């Protein structure tokens, strides 16, 4: 315990947001005369009195593996209880209202379930970056208090427990006629999440929350030069338009007190399928990314920024042509607008796939991300394997095409299919992150190497000129 190396004070693994760095200089204590002997004698004295020493308390602590197994057991018990209560509650309802109620429950809670999935996968991304030697904190310009993959997984675990528990309580209360209490469940959950995000005190990873909110502000209002973190998060938001669309519909029902009712199912309701807010919310992340590209072109003059802006603009026709189904005659939709919608979908999917492979990833950079600093099973499975290239490219193409299905506003009532496609899109973005970050890391390394070479050449030229002047 005392003979190990001193842990650096700036280690992010030991410090949470708001805590101060503490350095223990064990050599100072060991250098004092008689310090170790007095500690030993005091420990023996405590033993003779029947007291417990810190060493003894540490020895009686359960092993980490045992604690991990105990947590897994508790989690499985909790899953079984939630499934049992939820199933019994659904079976209590009449068959004609059951599907409508499940659709409504999904509407309130599936955005948070998808967000939880994204947090879990982001933790896996960070773990691979750490194992592969990719300095992601430098890429995203994070401070020393940034969250590690372990802390990200801790947040995801709490989300995994809280969201399904609230959903189970909602189903249970509604099935027993407690409509008012059931309606309060999603309201309380959404309010708690907002409070945690904007809590102004230095707890709950304050620096990370502030960085996240500040980046969101920069995405909505690109009034400054675009950083890598800005457009990286904006790209992730384009994969979560399903989350924002359902959040808008859920908040609309909460504001108009339509939670745990079926009034909102009417097509002409303010929160119904004819609402113009649905396509507007779907298109917002793409407009944010489009504005970033235009700002980047203004700052740098690179024409590739305009081509990238064109890519995001191709999503706009897909969204609004699909929404026209609720505002035109069926014959017009079938003969005119549906073919245009299909054509725009093909253009958007093809353009996005091309940009992913050739620009965002740059296939020549598929080298480092799965090569861990220490021998690991994933290194042998993934690094330099041809099947990795084939899988990533093929799955990206397929999921790009299926994601167009979700952008279609007229297909929103197929909630199970749309939820599955939204989860697959988040998985596609999870794959995309690996190679996008790796590509940026390679660019940073190449730039630093070029600067180092230029400085060495300039130093050599100065020495040569100095020697020539000396000889003259």
From TrEMBL:
InterPro entries: EXS_C. It is found in: Membrane. Its main location: membrane. The lineage of its organism: Eukaryota, Viridiplantae, Streptophyta, Embryophyta, Tracheophyta. Keywords: Membrane, Transmembrane, Transmembrane helix. It is a multi-pass membrane protein. This is EXS domain-containing protein. It comes from the Eukaryota. GO terms for cellular component: cytoplasm; membrane. The chain crosses the membrane at residues 65-87, 107-130, 156-175, 187-207. Residues 269-468 form the EXS domain. Signal peptide: none annotated. Residues 33-52 are annotated as: Disordered. The keyword Transmembrane helix applies.
């Amino acid at each position: 315990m005392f003979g190990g190396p001193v842990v650096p004070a700036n280690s992010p693994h030991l410090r949470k947001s708001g805590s101060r760095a503490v350095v223990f200089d064990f050599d100072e204590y060991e250098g004092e005369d008689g310090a170790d002997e007095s500690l030993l004698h005091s420990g023996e004295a405590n033993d003779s009195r029947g007291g417990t020493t810190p060493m003894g308390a540490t020895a009686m602590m359960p092993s980490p593996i045992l604690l991990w197994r105990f947590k897994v057991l508790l989690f499985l018990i909790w899953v079984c209880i939630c499934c049992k209560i939820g199933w019994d509650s659904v079976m209590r309802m009449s068959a004609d209202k059951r599907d409508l109620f499940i659709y409504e429950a999904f509407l309130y809670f599936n955005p948070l379930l998808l967000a939880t999935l994204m947090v879990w996968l982001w933790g896996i991304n960070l773990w691979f970056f750490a194992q592969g030697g990719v300095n992601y904190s430098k890429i995203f310009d994070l401070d020393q208090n940034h969250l590690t993959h372990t802390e990200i997984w801790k947040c995801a675990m709490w989300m995994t427990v809280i969201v399904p528990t609230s959903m189970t309580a909602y189903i249970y209360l509604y099935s027993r006629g407690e409509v008012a209490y059931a309606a309060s469940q999603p309201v309380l959950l959404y309010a708690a999440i907002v409070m945690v995000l904007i809590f102004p005190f230095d707890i709950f990873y304050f620096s990370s929350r502030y960085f996240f909110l500040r980046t969101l502000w920069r995405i909505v209002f690109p009034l400054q030069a675009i950083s890598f973190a800005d457009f990286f998060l904006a790209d992730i938001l384009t994969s979560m338009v399903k989350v924002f669309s359902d959040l808008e519909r859920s908040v609309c029902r909460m504001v108009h007190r339509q939670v745990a009712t079926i009034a909102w199912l009417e097509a002409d309701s303010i929160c119904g399928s004819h609402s113009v807010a649905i396509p507007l919310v779907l298109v917002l992340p793409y407009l944010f990314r489009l504005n970033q590209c235009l700002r980047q072109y203004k700052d740098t003059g690179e024409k590739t920024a305009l081509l990238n802006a064109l890519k995001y603009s191709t999503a706009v026709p897909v969204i609004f042509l699909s929404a026209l189904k609720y505002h035109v005659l069926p014959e017009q939709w079938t003969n005119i607008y549906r073919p245009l919608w299909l054509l725009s979908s093909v253009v958007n999917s093809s353009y996005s796939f091309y940009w992913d492979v050739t620009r965002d990833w740059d296939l020549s950079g598929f080298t480092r991300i799965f090569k861990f600093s220490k021998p690991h099973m994933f290194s042998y499975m993934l690094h330099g394997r041809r099947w990795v290239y084939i899988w990533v490219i093929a799955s990206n193409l397929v999921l790009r095409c299926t994601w167009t299905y979700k952008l279609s506003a007229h297909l929103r009532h197929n909630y199970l299919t749309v939820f599955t496609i939204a989860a697959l899109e988040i998985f596609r973005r999870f794959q995309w992150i690996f190679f996008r970050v790796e590509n940026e890391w390679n660019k940073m390394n190449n730039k630093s190497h070029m600067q180092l070479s230029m400085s060495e050449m300039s130093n050599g030229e100065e020495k040569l000129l100095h020697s020539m002047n000396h000889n003259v």
